[in-house]
Amino acid sequence: MRNAVLIARAKSMRTAPSEPEQRMWLALRAARFAGVKFRRQKVIGPFIVDFASRVPMLVVEIDGDTHAERTIEDDDRSRFLEQQGYRVIRYTNHEVMTNLEGVLTHLAGVVATAPLPTLSPEGERAL
After folding, report:
1. What is the distance between the alpha carbons of residues 64 and 61, in angstroms, rounded to a whole number?
2. Which of 53, 57, 111, 125 is 20 to 30 Å from the Cα of 37, by its Cα?
3. Which CATH architecture has domain 2-112?
4. Which residues form the DUF559 domain (predicted)?
C-alpha cells in the first residue's frame, strides 16, 4: 500500500512539480548550468530523485517541510545514492524560493570541486 502511495506521489510530482522544483529546473535544464546535463525526476534504484547528473555524479534534492520529519528515511536514501557513486546535495524549498542565486552559487562550487570520472585503463586511450 505504501509503495502505491509513493508511486502515485511520484507521478504527480513529474506532471506538476512544486514551485521550488520548477524554479530549480529552469536554472538546470538543457545543460545550461555550468555545462552539466541534469535529468529531472530520475529513477536511481528504488528512488526517484529531484535532479541528477552523471558527470559529475551528483544528485540535487529540494526538500519540503515534510523532510524535517523524515530524517532517517532521507539519511538511508542518501546513503544508498552515495553507495551508487553519487554525491547528494540538499536544499530546502525556502532556500530555493528566497535565495535561488545563493543556491546556484553554492551548487556551482560543488560542481567545480566534483571529482573527475575514473577512466578505465582498458578504455579508448589504452595502448
Report:
1. 10
2. 125
3. 3-Layer(aba) Sandwich (3.40)
4. 8-107
